[in-house]
Design a protein that fits this description.
Blueprint lengths: L2 H11 L1 H8 L11 E4 L7 E4 L2 E2 L1 H14 L3 E7 L4 E6 H17 L7 E5 L4 H13 L2 E4 L6 H11 L3 E5 L1 E4 L2 E4 L1 H10 L6 E5 L13 E3 H6 L9 E2 L3 E7 L7 E6 L1 H13 L8 E4 L6 H13 L3 E5 L11 H9 L3 E4 L1 H10 L4 H4 L8 E4 L6 H11 L3 E3 L11 E2 L16 E2 L4 E5 L12 E6 L9 E2 L3 H9 L5 E10 L5 E6 L3 E4 L2 E4 H8 L5 E11 L3 E10 L7 H15 L8 E4 L13 H9 L13 H12 L7
Parallel strand pairs: 4-17, 6-7, 6-8, 8-11, 11-12, 16-17, 16-18, 18-19, 19-20, 31-32
Antiparallel strand pairs: 1-2, 3-13, 4-5, 9-10, 14-15, 15-25, 21-22, 23-24, 24-26, 26-27, 28-29, 30-31
This protein binds coenzyme A and adenosine monophosphate.
Length: 632
């Protein structure tokens, strides 16, 4: 039996034994009573009775164990022309003081705090300070518009909001404060305090009584110590796109999360404490939570906070410069970033100007890694290029190539094999298990391993209905795919209305809700089509209200503006077709999947429930006029 097989089998046959051993990598104030509480399925709880503090494990213990002078964070910001290091000792000091500042503003154990910041060290300091106090953070990606922030404020009900006054996004300077003010105005819940980190290139005007500058808040604060919390207490809420405009608040606990992420650093990424690990993502996404902040810090690595883009800051050599300058051992990013670099520097001229001898492997996730991009990255870098598949819900890889256990030959197009703890199966829509190479619903047999979502914040019902109901006894991933005869998993894409644009997870349902509010629109459908650079992009089809006569071009511009201002520019909503009607089933359900197949040039079966088949010919013609399916 190979090493992976032995490890994997143990994790499935004896999850309690397997994860109790992994839990030795974490410092506990009190050991757990039960490794896995199975008393209330499908809500399994890991390490019940255990007490720990995630911030202590990610920061303080490294100082106590002799890593105080090692860099915890390297801040590399080409957009502000800054490179700075923060040692573990300095990080401990900064986090303890900021935790004191939060406490002075009334934040206590169990309170929620929203963080809305770009890629700056203070974003990590804020997250860790919440963890230190036992408060629950909810980081909102800076690319979301005020309306999206307002939705999250209303749902998370934060005691305080921590923001930066602004950001530089590529070449644009963005002021965050007006956006946050507008969000708070829109929301019914009003946070008591807003702590504003003033950045000198975009100073913010403070609102009296509610706002305090970071600088002032910290000046009057005493450092505070770590507060013990239960393993099952929430560490954070991370909102992610579902199929409607109301995002899902994925709730992560403290104990299982710390154990699992700490374990992945060696077993999946094959790094050692002290190594430099770089996830070029954003703290607003799960990759940022797990692999910019918690994973590398729990394990005593140096993490890089990169405030820049793969191209344009200043050029397509930015990633190679960072790897070389900071001696990065392992990097993690989204395939889109590599497609963007390849487009600008196909021969890797900028890459060859850098010494990448320190570089051990590249990990990619967030969207399907197309074989072309895989081959290009492999050839350019000449190190293993590892695709791995995961979701906000899981916090770490469901399927991957576990470099620290056993390295498998890569099959381009597959993220390789199920990771220990994940019993991955393929089921048909009736719940029957499918054999090798048969495509169906990818599910994971319960219990899920530690670190995966504990529930949806304040919405247990949605947790059950979204993930646990379709196939009782299994977690429904909402991705479709198959497992081949060698046990390699192939992930073919989402089977719901979630799309991936440049590795960002967005909901076409949410865009549809915005488009539908235009006064001229009677009904609409938004679905994902292919995009050569960003993987997918949204396309909207709208039917006008009877009697409406309007300039279609003006309407399209207005719809783009509406989606940008209510969801954000990252939705990349740019294209709309005005059609006379939409294809529907006899019961009135819009056939989005069929339209998606037409727009992407995939074969489709005529749905037996379709109301009027001739409409598909009309839609095909309309889309053809717009250039769909696009020729690659
Ligand atoms: N704050 C505010 N706005 C943001 C933003 C942020 N953090 N991130 C993106 N946006 C805006 C962009 O400015 C752009 O606005 P525009 O339409 O006014 O130009 C829009 O959202 C779309 O952004 P993006 O999809 O990033 O496109 P781009 O053309 O600016 O950049 C890439 C293209 C490929 C360079 C970029 O998408 C990229 O770096 N992708 C990798 C993504 C990644 O790392 N994902 C993490 C998952 S692991
Ligand atoms: P997010 O929750 O933002 O991480 O997005 C999760 C979704 O991204 C998954 O459900 C997949 O559809 C897609 N995804 C992430 N990683 C991969 C991958 N390696 N291969 C294919 N799809 C992926």
């Amino acid at each position: 039996m190979g090493k992976y097989e032995a490890v994997f089998q143990k994790s499935i046959e004896d999850p309690e034994g397997f994860w109790a051993e992994a839990a030795e990598g974490i410092d506990w104030y009190t050991k757990w009573d039960t490794v896995l509480d199975r008393s209330n399925p499908p809500r399994y709880r890991w390490f019940r009775g255990g007490e720990l503090n995630t911030c202590y494990n990610a920061v303080d213990r490294h100082v106590e164990n002799g890593r105080g002078d090692q860099a915890a964070i390297i801040y590399d910001s080409p957009v502000t022309d800054t490179v700075a290091e923060i040692s573990y000792r300095e990080l401990q000091q900064q986090v303890a003081v900021f935790a004191g500042a939060l406490r002075n503003q009334g934040v206590q154990k169990g309170d929620t705090v929203i963080i809305y910041m770009p890629m700056i060290p203070e974003a990590l300091v804020s997250m860790l300070a919440c963890a230190r106090l036992g408060a629950v953070h909810s980081v909102v990606f800076g690319g979301f518009a005020a309306n999206e922030l307002a939705i999250r404020i209303d749902h998370a009900q934060p005691k305080a909001i921590v923001i930066a006054s602004g950001a530089i996004e590529g070449k644009k300077t963005l002021a965050y404060k007006p956006l946050v003010d507008s969000a708070i105005e829109q929301s019914s819940h009003k946070p008591e305090k807003c702590i504003v980190l003033q950045r000198d290139f975009v100073p913010a005007e403070l609102t009296e009584e509610r706002d305090i500058s970071w600088q002032e808040a910290v000046a009057g604060a005493e450092p505070v110590d770590c507060v013990p919390v239960q393993a099952t207490d929430p560490l954070y809420i991370l909102y992610t796109s579902g199929t409607t405009g109301m995002p899902k608040g994925v709730m992560r606990d403290n104990g299982g999360h710390a154990v699992a992420l700490n374990w992945t650093m060696k077993n999946i990424y094959n790094v050692e404490p002290g190594d430099v690990y770089w996830a070029a993502s954003d703290v607003g996404w799960v990759v940022g939570h797990s692999y910019i902040v918690y994973g590398p810090l729990l394990y005593g690595c140096t993490t890089i906070v990169y405030e820049g883009k793969p191209i344009g800051t200043p050029d397509a050599g930015a990633f190679w410069r960072v790897i070389n300058q900071h001696r990065v051992k392992v990097m993690f990013t989204a395939p889109t970033a590599f497609r963007a670099i390849r487009k600008e520097d196909p021969e890797g001229v900028l890459l060859k100007q850098n010494d990448l001898s320190c570089f051990q492997s590249l990990f990619l996730a967030g969207e399907r890694l197309d074989p072309d991009t895989y081959h290009w990255a492999r050839k350019m870098l000449n190190v293993p290029v590892i695709d791995h598949w995961w979701q906000t819900e899981t916090a770490w890889a469901i399927v991957g190539n576990p470099m620290g256990i056993e390295q498998f030959p890569v099959k381009p197009g597959s993220p390789t094999k199920p990771m220990p703890g994940y019993d991955v199966r393929i089921l048909d829509d009736e719940g029957n298990e499918l054999g090798p190479n048969q495509e169906g619903n990818i599910v994971v047999k319960l219990p899920l391993p530690p670190g995966t979502l504990a529930t949806l914040w304040r919405n247990e019902e949605r947790f059950i209905s979204s993930y646990m109901s379709a196939f009782p006894g299994y977690y429904e991933t909402s991705d479709g795919g198959y497992i081949d005869e060698d046990g390699y998993v192939f992930v073919m894409g989402r089977i719901d209305d979630v799309i991936n644009i440049a590795g960002h997870r967005l909901s076409t349902g949410a865009m549809e809700e915005v488009v539908a509010t235009h006064p001229h629109v009677a009904e609409c459908a938004v679905f994902g089509t292919d995009d050569q650079l960003k993987g997918q992009k949204p396309l909207g089809l709208v039917v006008l209200k009877a009697g409406v006569e309007c300039d279609e071009e003006d309407l399209k511009v207005e719809l783009v503006q509406m989606v940008r201002s209510q969801i954000g520019a990252i939705a990349c909503y740019r294209e709309t077709a005005v059609v006379s009607r939409l294809p529907k089933t006899r019961s009135g359900k819009i056939l989005r999947g069929t339209m998606r197949s037409i727009a992407t040039g995939k074969e489709y079966r005529m749905p037996s429930t379709i109301d009027d088949p001739t409409i598909l010919e009309e839609i095909t013609e309309d889309l053809k006029k717009m250039g769909y399916p696009e020729l690659s």
